[in-house]
Amino acid sequence: MEQPVNGRRWAIVVLAFTAIMLNYVDRQVIALLKPMLQDEYGWSDRDYSHMASAFQFCAAVSFLGTGWFIDRIGLRRGFAIGVAAWSLAGMAHAFVSTVSGFIGVRALLGAAESIGTPAQVKTAATYFPPEQRSLMLGIGNMASNFGAVAAPLAIPPLALWLGWRAAFLITGGLGLVWVVVWLLVTPRTARTPDGAVVDAPADAVPWGRMLRDRRQWAIVAAKALSDQCWWFLLFFMPDLFHRMFGLSQGQLGLPIAFIYFLAALGSLSGGLLPTWLLRRGVPMNRARKGSMLLYAILILPVPAVLLTADAWVAAGLLGLGLFAHQGFSTNVFGMTADIFPARMIGTAIGIGAFAGNLSGMAMIEAAGFSLDNGYGYGPLLMVCGGSYLVALLLVHLLVPRLTLAEPGSFRTVPTGH
What's the chief localization of this chain (predicted)? Predict the structure, then answer.
């Protein structure tokens, strides 16, 4: 039966938020259990880097298909299939014990979890008008941080209580519960009160034209140069605190949760700031790029982590860095939703996320090399500090003036801003 979306869209947003939160819990479990698993199985830092890189590589390649997939079959079915697949892949970690086994299940998890980002952006673009999308994307982007806050508070105690295998089984099982609720809540055919279908399969998006479009390359540049820092910190931050400050498995939770709490605030601010600017008549181009410039400046102090011997000072600096990253990232998502029509959002963000995951994989491999060869975290933190200004410069060179996309086409229309 056809149903209007207005009464259900907030429930759909809450479910999408929950899915992305679970997405980040599942991918972070292995980082939080690294000291425990390294002691049990004798992994080297390069072994762990290979596991993380397998996740990144498979996620990157899969982004080229999952964005297209969710545009092609629709949000309801596509999101359900993706969450079910990544939940089963997460649970599979409990049944492996070798380096090659962990590399294999990390690869499966990365491939399945790639559905999350295009689904998140498509949810905002599908159910909310342009003037509300930035705020919705900011709220949605907070989900990753809630997951990243919940994971360090819950996973280490859970692993110490029930064993590390239980941590993978329980977090994966929650995703399967989500799939059931999602299919019960979302209507098979969703329409607005005026009869427009808001979630339906789309025609194939012409990839050749996408790759010749400067707007697409702006998204690629922004994602590649910002996501490399996010992925590096996501996979190596627990080890950084363990290595630099001697924090044990049980002591990691609070400082890392604090960092991701600040990152969550960054996501919210990344939605609120451009919305506030637009409502005061600031041109869209200036509102987006001005917001991104602020966040690019805020991340510059991250390398100062090397100068402190206090774990909580380091947590404050890294928290400021991830606050800035999430504010910047929210505006990249918002920019994508602005400059591409809704039916192409999944494909556009999928191509960008492909580049972001490849750069993240390169950064992770560089981290393993740097640590194994005695260079430490210094070179990596320096890269993080400067990447965002370079990303913004490339965005501006590729798209000097951001304008709203005309629905259903590659063209843009004047915004009046």
Answer: membrane
Task: Report the C-alpha dihedral over residues 181, 182, 187, 189, rounded to 10 degrees.
Answer: -150
Backbone dihedral region of 399: left (phi > 0), alpha (psi from -120 to 50 degrees) or beta? beta
Whole-angstrom distance, CA of residue 343 vs CA of residue 140: 19
- The identity of residue 100, as a single letter, is S
Q: Which residues pair with 3 in a beta bridge?
A: 190
Instruction: State the Cα–Cα distance between residues 32 and 388, nearest whole angstrom.
Output: 27
> How many CB atoms within 10 Å of residue 323?
26
The more confidently predicted of residues 132 and 16 is 16
374 φ/ψ angles, rounded to the nearest 5 degrees: 80, 10
> Residues near 265 by Cβ (< 8 Å), separated by ≥ 6?
323
**Dist CA 36 CA 413 (whole Å):** 55
* Angle of CA points 332, 367, 95, to nearest 5°: 90
The type of residue at 355 is: A
What would the pLDDT profile of 138-169 be if each residue is shown by its tens digit? 777 778 777 877 887 888 888 888 888 888 99
In whole angstroms, give the CA distance from residue 55 to residue 360.
10
Stated pTM of the model? 0.74
Q: Are 330 and 323 in contact (CB under 8 A)?
A: no
